[in-house]
Design brief:
Chain lengths: ~280, ~280
Amino acid sequence: MAITEPKAVPLDPEEARRLRAIRAERVGRWILPVAIMLLAVWFWDRICVWNEIPRYILPRPGEVLETLYTDAGLLFGSLLTTLRITFLGLLLAVLGGVGLAVLFAQSKWVEMSFFPFAVILQVTPIVAVFPLINIYVDNQTAKLLLCAWIVAFFPILSNTTLGLNSVDRNLVDLFRLNGATRWQELWHLRLPAAMPYFLGGLKIAGGLSLIGAVVAEFVAGSSGQSSGLASRIIEAGYRLNAPRLFAALILISFTGIVIFLMMTLISHLVLRRWHESALKQDR
Amino acid sequence: MLQDKPAETAQGQGEGASPLLVLRDVGKSFSNGVAALRAVNLTIREGDFLSLLGPSGCGKSTALRLIAGLSTPTTGVIDWRGTGLKGSADIGFVFQEPTLLPWASVFDNIWLPLRLRGVSRAKASPVIREMIERVRLTGFEEAMPRELSGGMKMRVSIARGLVTKPRLLLMDEPFAALDEITRFRLNNDLLELWQDERFTVVFVTHSVFESVFLSNRIVVMAARPGRVFREIAVDAPYPRDEVFRTSSAYAALCREASGVLGEAITLGGSVHGDH
């Protein structure tokens, strides 16, 4: 980290300016967002105090933190429920998305025939579809999973399909020349080539899966039996328990951030040895 | 066949060498109406280093793809002459781009053709290591393609083409994208490999100098439609090295080939060219 740039070479003004800019950026990248965030929280607190806003309308940040601590058992239990749906949904989305993409890659005809269905599933708002799911599916977990899956699988499907099809033509020829079977071509060529695309889709799907899980629970919430974070929010809303509402909200967005970081890390670990996107820019 | 010949004997030359494959009246037309090749007659002899030289659009790459079996001729036949050479199984192919698997190391890239034939990594290892040594990449076994220079990538590509010990190596302008110094070096190393391993090469290029330096036969092609224009025999003995590259014989041969290529280009420019 603390490697200092070699001082031996005298720098011309332009290079010196560039070096200063790089250093400033390195520091600023972390300091700035944190500072702005702290400032915003402080301002939030001040607004509450200056305007004497009652806690059931807008709680002070301190109160939210306190609730996060006192209600920890309830909230984190709910978080676990939401997380379970989210990751199961994501897992199914990966299996379904990649599976369908591989199927599509086998034949242009299959892709042409079935891709429209995937698009229809994607563009119809899940909230509007949910009443139907509610009628047809009894099991609460299955309902939520289905929602999370529908929302999350499309980016994986479309990205992986694109990846499987964007293989270097010459490499395909090389495989054919060496008598590769369809399976060998898929395993040794198309799947690795699709990896960066798939991981891009996964990054989007991770966030969407959380959204799907929460939205589904919201819509299902009226019918009662769920216990995820969304139902905590609804409940807190009914009871005008704003601090808990905020606490749950913070937990959800924090979870989203963690999921995103996880996916980014996975992507980096898989691609760092060979893909352009994972390379450090020198200039 | 593998007896020690004196160095000055140019291999593959002379009518004595047996034909490896014969293109008889081979033509190729695409569905969009373009006639890429018309009535190509060509005999490739065992041990030849044959260059297909011509302007772009003369169908030299198409000819290569036809020989490789990546495409089928519209007319005519490609006759393997009962050499036991079974189409693609005995052919190595080197593309204009290195065309490596970016996610695989140098070693694994060279392993690929054997891997596709079901040879395990351990079993293939001695051959792969030998190839890596032959193309002077020892020490780079575990390097990834992105860590290599253009010339080194092309060396990997050549090693991959030769790892199955093919009898015929097809090369489609392999050095066109390289700088001149790298290209010279690769030319020398390729010739050395060819002399040691005695495979047959069909080499597509648009560089007169390269074709004269490398080959014992140059087939000049003309465009619209793609066809064989004239063949030039390059009688200079092998091994050829930097001395040959600066010799007056080389210069004279280049002049001759340039002249023929010029004629071919002029001919291809007109709508109705005939011989």
